[in-house]
């Protein structure tokens, strides 16, 4: 559910105020507050959840040792070309999170032959990312989202990371 909540927080869907005309004033006020917030990033079609990132194997048959992205977002129209998102419910230690980030790094370093026969980073055979001001982006960003429902304090984990 935390991944779904993250998707909703990113998309910031706007309620249809016309459909709330018969609802109590506090419901309409809450809906209006949502309408008045800044727009979100992307659409529901911009999001993929539980995406395997194979360090070995193929896209369809990932081998062991790869990561699995909780959420992948592509919304270049909103300035978010490609973003990998990990949602932590504060049950994992900093060491476990680092191990997961190392799996991402292994995946980002992996190269394969693309359809044109040239070696490319594997992630670039599925997604595009624009160049930044320093030239070619070596890999897309990974966003850590802390959902503080577990016992661990995310502020301490952030310092350790």
* Overall residue-averaged pLDDT value: 87
Distance between the termini: 24 Å
Biggest sheet architecture: 4 strands, mixed
Pattern of helices and strands: HHEEEHEEEH
Number of helices: 4
State the assembly state of the protein chains: single chain
Residue share in helix: 25-40%
State which percent range the strand residues make up: 15-25%
Spans of 5+ residues with little confidence (pLDDT < 50)?
A: none
Structural class, by secondary structure, is alpha+beta
Q: Give the strand order of the largest sheet, numbering strands 1, 2, ... along the chain.
A: 1-2-3-6
Radius of gyration: 19 Å
The 3D shape can be described as globular
By DSSP, the count of extended strands is: 6
Write up what this structure looks like.
The mean pLDDT is 87. A hairpin with a 5-residue loop joins strand 4 and strand 5. Helices cover 28% and strands 22% of the residues. By secondary structure, it is an alpha+beta fold. The two termini are 24 Å apart. The strands form two sheets. The protein has a four-stranded mixed beta sheet with strand order 1-2-3-6. It has a two-stranded antiparallel ribbon with strand order 4-5. It contains four helices and six strands. The protein has helices at residues 2-11, 25-36, 94-109, 154-160; strands spanning 47-53, 67-75, 80-88, 111-113, 119-121, 142-146.
């Amino acid at each position: 559910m935390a991944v779904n909540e993250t998707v909703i927080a990113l998309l910031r869907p706007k309620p249809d105020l016309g459909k709330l005309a018969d609802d109590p004033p506090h419901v309409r006020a809450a809906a209006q507050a949502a309408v008045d917030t800044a727009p979100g990033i992307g659409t529901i079609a911009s999001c993929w959840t539980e995406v395997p990132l194979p360090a070995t194997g193929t896209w369809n048959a990932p081998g062991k040792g790869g990561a699995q992205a909780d959420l992948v977002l592509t919304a270049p129209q909103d300035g978010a070309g490609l973003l990998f998102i990990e949602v932590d419910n504060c049950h994992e230690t900093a060491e476990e999170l680092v191990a997961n980030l190392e799996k991402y790094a292994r995946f980002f370093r992996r190269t394969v032959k693309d359809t044109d026969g040239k070696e490319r980073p594997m992630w670039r055979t599925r997604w595009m990312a624009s160049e930044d001001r320093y030239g070619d982006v070596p890999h897309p960003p990974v966003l850590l989202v802390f959902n503080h429902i577990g016992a661990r304090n995310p502020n301490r984990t952030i310092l350790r990371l």
